Amino acid sequence: MNKSLVALVACDIYDDTLVYEAVKKALGLVAGIESFVKPGEKIVVKPNLLIGSAPEKCVSTHPTVFRAACKIMLEAGAIVSAGDSPAFGSTALVMRMCGLAPVADELGVTIADFSKGIEVSHKDGLLVKHFTIAAAVMEADGLVSLPKLKAHGLCRMTGAVKNQFGCVPGMQKTQYHSRLADPWDFGTMLVDLNMAIKPRLYIMDAVMAMEGNGPRGGKPRKIGAILVSTDPVALDAVACKIINLDPEFVPTMAPGEKAGLGTYHVENIEIVGDKIEDFICKDFDVVRKPKEHATRGRVRAYINNRISPRPVIDEMLCTKCGICIEHCPVMPKAVDWIEGDKTKPPRHNYNRCIRCYCCQELCPEGAISIKETLLGKVFFR
Ligand code: SF4
Ligand code: SF4
Predict the structure, then answer these.
(1) Are 229 and 311 in the same domain?
(2) Integer-rounded Cα radius of gyration of the chain
(3) pTM (2 d.p.)
(4) Which of 97, 151, 319, 330 gets the most CB atoms within 10 Å of its CB?
């Protein structure tokens, strides 16, 4: 069996020239851009644009990484567009807020419309055999994914595999959370989605990662690396090694290997470029525990609700914007105003909460964090 190649190249700062050189070098170590993109092909670039946020917050793929990837593909003769389906706001607005729109304007990269979906059948899916995927993605010749390395409440970490969730248009993403309450089912769906889209290449921005209350409310943490691979599972596994996280804890790894998307076993991965030992952050703030399965049945659900980590609102930080309520996928809502009073912070109902952590992911103030319960601490120990 051929090993999966993951290129790892040092890049200390977000400087246009340095990032371009690092991405170019990493691509060369994997195979060179001409192996992935032919002149005249329509390529969609998919950065992580979770939400409109300044680049230094490390929520989205940095503009310098976006610039380098687009520039290299344009130099290879591709017709390049870029897009994502952010949690809220239009792609154009979020790209502007994240600092990507001026880069796109300058390079002549058009904004791809991710709001319209087309039906895609994926008969071989492990769990999901039918998706609605942004038409701009399926009508292009290929997709190049630009994930950002971040801690993640639901998946432990977000990287190459998770980045394609933004190819599902708008609020349809929410339905997957409510339908697939078990994190391992959710991870399997992400794998199926990647198999349906088949991105050509993954270029990870790990110059600055996000640790802690990610993927939106965490803290920037320097890693100083660009990673490139055609195998998103192997790329994420290498990223896990860097942040000292067991890949077995990430719910996209085992299904990713089972589906043939890639491998997370070190013996099947060859890291080329710089030495991984120089990048390892042993104390990277991420949850180092197996991801819990959701339980089914009333009694088990009752117990589960008392041991699964909970989203908790810091009332001092809450601005009562209501975004957490809007994005909670369960009905009736598992986080809501107390008796309709919008002058006070919302409150969670943990018996209804499926622990999808959308509220934590999307709170603009980082006011929601995931906390272990007392019983959960005892149980998991
Ligand atoms: S999203 Fe955050 S700030 Fe807004 S109401 Fe919910 S907890 Fe408060
Ligand atoms: S309250 Fe938060 S974690 Fe619970 S179901 Fe709603 S969005 Fe998901």
Answers:
(1) no
(2) 20
(3) 0.92
(4) 151
